[in-house]
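INFO  loader      accepted 1 record
INFO  loader      residues=77
INFO  predictor   begin
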Amino acid sequence: MLVLPFEQDAFNYARRAADLGARRHLRLDASVAALGAELQRLLTDGSYRLAAKDVAGRLRREYRPEAAARVIAELVA
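INFO  predictor   done
INFO  writer      dumping tokens
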């Protein structure tokens, strides 16, 4: 994930992604060359891929579709 936080909760999301090891960040006024360099780093550094897979696994375990269906059913009942 390449994050360019610019307001309110975006900084919190950027910090959380950093804590999980799944992101790089730039200032909002970053140059096109800097954006390209960071994207290249994300695509070639395997540690970000591994961190993203870990996050995806956590999300699948914690936010399963059946859990969402149960919450919806409770709200409708």
